[in-house]
Structure formats: structure tokens, C-alpha cells
Amino acid sequence: MLPEDVGIFLQFAQDRDPVIVTLKSSNSPGIRTIANPLPETQVMTLWNQAILGSLSRKHIVYPGRAYYVIDISLPTLEFSPSRGFKWNDRDALLPGRIYGFFDTVFPGYEKWYKALARWIRKNFVKNPLPLIGYVGPAAYDWYKKGGLLLPSMLPPPITTVWLSWVEAQDQHRAIFSK
């Protein structure tokens, strides 16, 4: 997703349910709504207040570092935005994801997740490359104009295998120009 795609997705989520978007990790325990999540690069939490009436953070202490995080056992969804960067002098995009932990049953939680996933499948484009997932409309237009879609959550090394992956994207993209 590019920021425009994030915007239409979150608009749907918040029109459908009383959803608050907050950061997953914070230096303080309070839950604060992200005023503008479109340019956000950190992992966010989608909190559906109809499923979970209140939300708090867990205090995590490591030697030399302390922070607060939303417990993964709660019925919230983790929303990792896509990350753009330069790869081998080209604009590239790493995938984002929406993720839930379903170890504990909460009424309505899985149904909510499935509704959001259904919306993505209906409104986004199935990834044109042999990857799992969908591409937002703005990200798909960006891809058609030369952007690279990379399949891993971390930037891959510049190797012959990855260069051939990019070459395959360029060949696939050539179909659009005909």
C-alpha cells in the first residue's frame, strides 16, 4: 500500500466499525489515536472498540530500555505499513500486512478480520507476481510505472537471484505498455 491506499483502507475500517488506529509500541502507556496514519512507518494497532471496550499497554523492561506495547493476546489487529526505499538505484516497496492473533476466542474478532481481508481482496489488485497478497490501487499504478514490488519484509541483498526477480517484473510490466 502507498499512503493513498492506506487512507481508503482505514476509511473503510473506521466507517464499518468504531476503530482507533494507534502505534503498537510507545514510550508511554497511554493509547493515543494517530492523527494522520497515512505517512506512518511504524507498526500500528487497529482497535475495534465494539470488540474490546478498553485497551492498555504492557510495560516491557529490557536492560537499558523500557517501553510499552499492546499485548498480542488482545483482539486487536496489527497493521504494518509497506515501506518504500531505494534498491539498486530503483524505487522499491516492501509489503505491509494486517495480522491478527487468534489463539484466544473473542466474539466478533475473527469475523472483523475476515471482513477487512474480504474488502482488501475486493478493492485491491491480486499481486501480479508469484507472491501472496494484494496491491493497493495507487501502489499498483506506481508498479506499472516502474516501481519494484519486493516480497520480503526486509530489503533483500543485491544478488543475481534478486536481480533476475527484478528483470521478471520489468518483463511483466512491458505487457502494460503494449
Adjacency order of strands in the biggest sheet = 1-3-6-9
Helix content: 25-40%
Low-pLDDT parts are none
Query: What can be said about the biggest beta sheet?
Result: 4 strands, antiparallel
Instruction: Please state the structural category.
Output: alpha+beta
Radius of gyration, CA atoms, in whole angstroms? 18 Å
Tally of separate helices: 4
Furnish the topology, listing elements before pairings.
Layout: H1 3-16, E1 19-23, E2 25-26, E3 44-48, E4 57-62, E5 65-70, E6 77-80, E7 83-87, E8 90-94, E9 97-100, H2 109-123, E10 125-126, E11 134-135, H3 137-144, E12 148-149, H4 160-174
Parallel strand pairs: 8-12
Antiparallel strand pairs: 1-3, 2-5, 3-6, 4-5, 6-9, 7-8, 10-11
Task: Characterise this structure.
The chain is α+β, with helices and mostly antiparallel strands. The protein has one domain (3-84, 94-139). The chain is built from four helices and twelve strands. The strands form four sheets. The protein has a four-stranded antiparallel sheet with strand order 1-3-6-9, covered by helices on one side. Strands 2-5-4 form a three-stranded antiparallel sheet, with no helix packed on it. A hairpin with a 7-residue loop joins strand 10 and strand 11. The longest helix is centred in the middle third of the chain and has 15 residues, at 109-123. The model has no long low-confidence stretch (mean pLDDT 91).
